[in-house]
Design goal:
heterodimer; A: 166 residues; alpha+beta; 5-stranded antiparallel sheet; 8 strands; B: 335 residues; mainly alpha; two-stranded antiparallel sheet; 3 strands; disordered N terminus
């Protein structure tokens, strides 16, 4: 039931408030929905990741593991799952140690056989700042295997993967 | 085993956590904004009864907008919190064929070192490693491709000496590696490595030596890359792989069992090396030595590509040994 209308002063106030709120809505809508754009990282990020991966691999070398000098570095984002092809020998034990720069919060590394089947093994992880992960496997057959690295949580980041064996 | 006190779990796969991207919160803010705007849009139709101090909604449209906004906003703050703490979906437990065929192969990680192969073999048999020594290289090579191949072969010889725990042989090979690197113009970069090889050999630090040999080889490759000699990098890896396979096939032949022979299975490595050879510049591919090695690799690929769960027959191991011995002889014979 209408009992009179708003005064002109109130209408002006309302108009201004509406304009302000419209601007606020557009500002909220402009927030990107997901940080998919890859930030430009310099190579120092990969170096930092390599230092961390070497540190993790170094801890394993106390148990007789030899660190391979080579490494695999790159940049990944959530949803990516880069895969590296390697050759492993039956009888050896391997650890694949993964580190990422501090934009990442949680990472994972997993090993698969040549049929794409997950290889059971020991998993190590440290989340949040400069996350780490490692997968330890003892293949029963020599031949090709695949190592998958993943960014499970966080912003796109540099990563480094190192292999140790004994 | 405790690697730096990190938490460890046994078993398959890793738990995936859905990433917290704030999507729920943004949706909530959008919904609230729409509610406020719809209220204001219809404000001119509001009437205020000064006597009763009640506001009347004259039209059902704003109410419909309110209801739509509430639905559209999706999740409120409570739901946003629930999303962030919801149980994560585990990552897929298998790789697809597309993922496997799209896998990256790189020289530094996809080609195993002779040390890995020797370590695997050493767990099954005790080869007479010193019987695998060969005499020092006497030729003064001028062809850079041949130099690179021989450099790889010498690094493999270093691993043999480490397995034999022969520090003098390691030191001798260290000097030979430095000499060949000098001919390639990369000795300055590995001078320090040469000293470390000698130090580790004198301390009988065999694990350190295995790491140092690979590091030396990689440093040579990096120096080649810096000098824009990238094609030689493949040849260093190839030379090392051929020599390592020659040594192992000989040891397997002398101690043959199906299980021992199965260690020779490495089809992907040969495929990778062949692919790399195919990408060499035409002037290198046309060199007689490279052409010959390429053809021989095609035969070798068949010998090391037996099925998963299978093994190589003694005849195949013998063929493999003969083939790799012929290749090593071709590599060391001055062009």
């Amino acid at each position: 039931m209408n009992n009179g209308s708003l005064s002109s002063r109130s209408r002006r106030l309302l108009r201004h408030s509406t304009t302000f709120l419209c601007c606020a809505v557009f500002a909220v809508a402009a927030i990107p929905s997901a940080p998919l754009a890859q930030a430009a990282e310099d190579t120092s990020g990969e170096t930092d990741a390599r230092v961390d991966a070497l540190e993790l691999a170094g801890a394993l070398s106390n148990d007789g593991y030899k660190i391979r000098d080579g490494h695999w570095s790159g940049t990944f984002k959530a949803g990516d799952a880069p895969v590296l092809a390697v050759n492993l020998y039956a009888g050896n034990q391997y650890y694949f140690s993964l580190a990422a720069t501090d934009k990442a919060k949680k990472v994972a590394v997993t090993v698969f056989d040549e049929n794409g089947k997950l290889l059971a093994g020991e998993l190590i992880s440290r989340d949040n700042e400069r996350p780490l992960a490692a997968a330890g496997v003892a293949p029963e057959a020599s031949g090709p295997y695949y190592v998958r690295v993943q960014l499970l949580e966080g912003q796109p980041a540099d990563f480094c993967l190192i292999c140790t064996y004994k | 085993m405790n690697a730096g006190g990190l938490p460890r779990t046994q078993g398959e796969g890793t738990r995936a956590v859905r990433r917290a991207d704030g999507g729920g919160l943004r949706a909530y803010l959008r919904g609230v904004s729409i509610v406020i705007i719809s209220m204001l849009a219809s404000a001119r139709h509001l009437s205020y009864n000064r006597r009763t101090m009640r506001i009347f909604w004259p039209s059902p449209l704003p109410l419909a907008l309110l209801a739509g906004a509430a639905l559209f906003s999706g999740v409120g703050p409570a739901a946003a919190r629930a999303e962030q703490t919801a149980a994560p979906a585990p990552p897929p437990a298998t790789l697809t064929a597309a993922q496997m065929s799209g896998a990256v192969s790189i020289d530094a990680m996809s080609v195993p070192t002779p040390g890995e192969l020797f370590a695997a073999l050493g767990k099954q048999i005790k080869p007479n490693w010193s019987a695998a020594y060969r005499g020092p290289l006497t030729a003064a090579y001028s062809d850079r491709a041949q130099l690179a191949l021989n450099l790889g072969g010498l690094v493999a010889d270093g691993y043999v000496a480490v397995e034999a725990q022969d520090s003098q042989q390691v030191k001798n090979l260290g000097k030979d590696i430095l000499k060949l690197a000098s001919s390639l113009g990369v000795s300055k970069e590995i001078l320090e490595r040469g000293k470390r090889i000698t130090d580790f050999a004198e301390q009988n630090d065999w694990n350190g030596l295995r790491e140092e040999l690979e590091a030396t080889q990689n440093e040579v490759k990096q120096a080649m890359e810096a000098k824009r000699d990238d094609e030689l990098i493949t040849l260093v890896s190839l030379g090392g792989w051929i020599r390592g396979t020659q040594v192992v096939s000989d040891a397997v032949l002398k101690n043959f069992t199906p299980q021992t022979a199965s260690v020779l299975r490495q089809p992907a490595v040969v495929a990778f090396l062949r692919a790399k050879l195919d990408k060499l510049p035409a002037r290198l591919q046309d060199e007689p030595l490279i052409k010959k090695l390429s053809a021989q690799l095609a035969d070798i690929e068949k010998l090391v590509s037996f099925p998963l769960g299978g093994t190589a027959s003694k005849e195949d191991v013998q063929k493999l040994n003969q083939q790799t011995t012929a290749m090593v002889n071709d590599i060391v014979t001055k062009i």
